[in-house]
Amino acid sequence: MSQSLTINRQFVLASRPKGEPDADTLRLETSPVPNPAPGQLLLRTEYLSLDPYMRGRMSDAPSYAAPVALGAVMEGGTVAQVVVSHLDGFSPGDWVLSFNGWRDFAVSDGTGVTVLGSDLAHPSWALGIMGMPGFTAWAGLTQIGVPKSGETVCVAAATGPVGATVGQIAKLMGCHVVGIAGGAEKCAYAVKELGFDACIDHKSDGFAEKLKAAAPKGIDVYFGRLYI
């Protein structure tokens, strides 16, 4: 079903899952498209980023960020277009980076909304390589890890948006790059498509020995989660 100009679809958190989310975790609701008041924008979601952190937001366990409330719209980063603007600095047709969550339309006062321009060749890149994942990869590796040419960089979740970018930046910096991923297919992709020197399946037998063989000089910079 394509977007409607009059009906706003949104997914709300209906229950807190135990383990994997199921068909009862989210509930689709509909309502009229809202009208922005003075000082507000009406945004139409065009792209939604589905990220691993969302599973954590479904839980009410202690975390670094508050959980999504039951009955609230499931949160998520979005690229949207301005439909109506009653706010200086925003014009109808502008692409924006926003946090509309899982819904077609959202009203905003502009807080946390970044104008991307009106003529973008690849708007969705603002949620990927030119957005939070790309910035996380660049900052974490070049500003915190600071590897030197010839050193070994080991990247966990090597085929995810952050890990894949870390590995490619590390290669450009002249590093020996070893990835870790779950499954032979992902590991093959990391080597053949992303240019990693090696990638080890953390689900495979002899994982520790294989990792040691792929990094004979040891690991200088480790990026990602620990497999213990």
Question: What can you tell me about this protein's structure?
Answer:
This protein has five helices and eleven strands; from the N terminus they run βββαββββαβαβαβαβ. By secondary structure, the protein is α/β, with parallel strands linked by helices. The N and C termini lie far apart (44 Å). The strands form three sheets. It has a five-stranded antiparallel sheet with strand order 6-3-4-5-7, with no helix packed on it. Strands 10-9-8-11 form a four-stranded parallel sheet, sandwiched between helices. Helix content is 21%, strand content 26%. The model has no long low-confidence stretch (mean pLDDT 95). The protein has helices at residues 53-58, 132-145, 161-172, 184-192, 207-214, and strands spanning 7-13, 26-32, 41-48, 78-85, 95-98, 105-108, 114-117, 152-155, 176-181, 198-201, 221-223.
CATH topology of the largest domain: Quinone Oxidoreductase, Chain A, domain 1
Radius of gyration: 21 Å
Order of helices and strands: EEEHEEEEHEHEHEHE
* Overall pLDDT metric: 95
Strand % is 25-35%
- Measured as a percent range, the helix fraction is 10-25%
CATH architecture of the largest domain: Alpha-Beta Complex
Quick one: biggest sheet?
5 strands, antiparallel
Distance N to C terminus? 44 Å
User: What is the assigned CATH homologous superfamily of the largest domain?
Assistant: Medium-chain alcohol dehydrogenases, catalytic domain
Reading off the top of the CATH hierarchy, the class of the largest domain is best stated as Alpha Beta
